[in-house]
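Section 5: illustrative case.
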């Protein structure tokens, strides 16, 4: 089991209950969608995974380790095991595609040879060969998201979290990005994708967790309750 949430609630200091008694389990190798209206608690749930927030109540285990009890000194190692992709890509504009990816490895202390090899590997994996030396401003939205995905994969995470990764992309490009995420999942990485894109979810026939007002209101193995 990769992820276990037991009766997790999150109440922010302003009194808002963002998550209310959430329990869920995610196996290694799963691909799942996280859906729900704005304010349902999706971002809060995602922040708990990499300990940007801590729950008010409940327990969370990732790869059998409690991340609630985890020491501050252990948090960087947790974060290295989680790759994140954003709706707005969050690339460094003054760095090329390769440099953006390399940077993610430099900050965790990888050596230059390892970085060179891995950057070439992930560039190839996301289909960006030939675009390594382009700056984000010279790339299309779809290509920028591919850089974002390559960067998220650079440190070989156990878990890839995609927060509305197709939110800024048109439908054809969104489908390509989905195919890439499925491909990454088939190679063994667990993927969690928060999205509003019902069409993509419907076509995928993957597990869907539906949140509303901080509660899990559906957890369907093939997305049927959403359709
Ligand atoms: P979603 O990602 O599904 O839109 P969020 O997790 O962002 O939902 O928000 C859930 C609820 O928690 C909302 O009512 C939101 O206003 C509130 N919330 C989110 N972050 C904070 C915060 N840092 N402080 C206080 N309230 C917050």
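Designed sequence:
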């Amino acid at each position: 089991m990769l992820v276990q949430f037991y009766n997790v609630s999150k109440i922010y200091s302003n009194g808002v209950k963002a998550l209310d008694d959430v329990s869920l389990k995610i196996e290694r190798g799963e691909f799942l969608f996280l859906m729900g209206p704005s304010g349902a608690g999706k971002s809060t749930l995602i922040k708990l995974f990499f300990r940007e927030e801590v729950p008010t109540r409940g327990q969370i285990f990732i790869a059998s380790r409690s991340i609630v009890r985890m020491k501050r000194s252990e948090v960087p190692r947790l974060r290295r095991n989680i790759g994140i992709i954003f709706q707005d890509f969050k690339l460094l504009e003054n760095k090329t595609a390769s440099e953006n990816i390399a940077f993610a490895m430099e900050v965790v202390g990888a050596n230059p040879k390892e970085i060179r090899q891995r950057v070439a590997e992930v560039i190839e994996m996301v289909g960006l060969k030939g675009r390594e030396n382009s700056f984000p401003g010279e790339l299309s939205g779809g290509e920028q998201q591919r850089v974002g995905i390559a960067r998220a994969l650079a440190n070989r995470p156990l878990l890839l979290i995609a927060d509305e990764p197709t939110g800024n992309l048109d439908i054809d490009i969104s489908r390509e990005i989905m195919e890439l995420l499925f491909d990454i999942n088939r190679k063994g990485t667990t993927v969690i994708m928060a999205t509003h894109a019902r069409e993509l979810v419907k076509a995928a026939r993957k597990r869907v967790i539906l949140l509303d007002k901080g509660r899990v209101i559906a957890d369907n193995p093939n997305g049927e309750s959403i359709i």
